[in-house]
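Troubleshooting log. The previous structure file for this entry was overwritten by mistake, so regenerating from the original sequence record. Sequence copied from the archived sheet and checked twice against the printout by T.R.
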Amino acid sequence: MLKFLSKLFSRRTSSRRPDAAVDFQTLAEGNNDVIFRCGKDGIVNYVSPSIRLFGWVPEEVLGQGPAMFILPEDLPAVLAVLEKHKAGVESTRISFRLRRKDGTPVWLEASARTVADAVCGSGDVVVVLRDVEERKQLEERLCRLAMTDGLTGLANRRAFDEALESEWLRVRRTKGRLSLLLIDLDHFKGFNDHYGHQVGDDCLRAVASAIQEALQRPADLAARYGGEEIAVILPNTDLAGAVAVAVSVRSAVEALCIPHVVTGAGAEKVTISVGVATALSAVGASIQMPAGLLRAADTALYKAKNNGRNRVETALVLSGDISTSSSEASTG
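Regenerated output below.
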């Protein structure tokens, strides 16, 4: 379609045949896709009536540049494509978000082709725009599913690993700090054995929801780390801040009051143990790789288990050294 339109326009501009102009306009105006023609500066000199699908009328678009109807975040990529056409590239394809007249965005796929112009030499660019909003929404849903744990709705292990690596690179770059919580449900095997795995799944979902709700910042990431273990990444958080979050999370889970008569500790409700690790940068310090932070959090979690469960323990990672200390225990 795009190649055919380009040939029609090329015939029109080279021969100035009236029937060629009619052919181009008739085909463009009978197409469900939106057809643009613009100079290599991006100024629109033709747009098909189907632009009305997005609330605009052709007269509002003619003579305008891409900044009028393309989202600012996507504009640089579109301008870069125009530069390619200026440099002699014949055809390009790009996806971007167009702004409807009511301000709402819609994903479009643009196929663009430079057409020969024997009269002026420079040539215009013919662009066919196709609505791909549903496809983009499907891609985003699939992406979320690929990074989401199906049982708890938290991020999955893949998402956790990628986020931890990204945050670690930021720490290395900014010489900042990063904290990690490792959370484990106390006596959960006994819970599953006593109540059954379906109730166990319900319990995991409830605990995951309570942990997620206890997190205050959008940047904090809770993920199902494996089995009944949940990990929480806390960017830009020192040890004291991480302990405060851990205490809040532990209290939120205990407040659910999920019955658990086989805890072996007389608590008779579901509780969690939390290991907290914080990586601190220092001038000249060699910060461990993310695996070191995970080992530190696991060390703290193991200590919480050994010290009676339903408590928070900490570990500090600095210059490759790990030290552990007790931070908080249940008061109930």
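Residues 4-22, 319-326 have pLDDT under 50 and may be disordered. Archived copy saved in two places this time.
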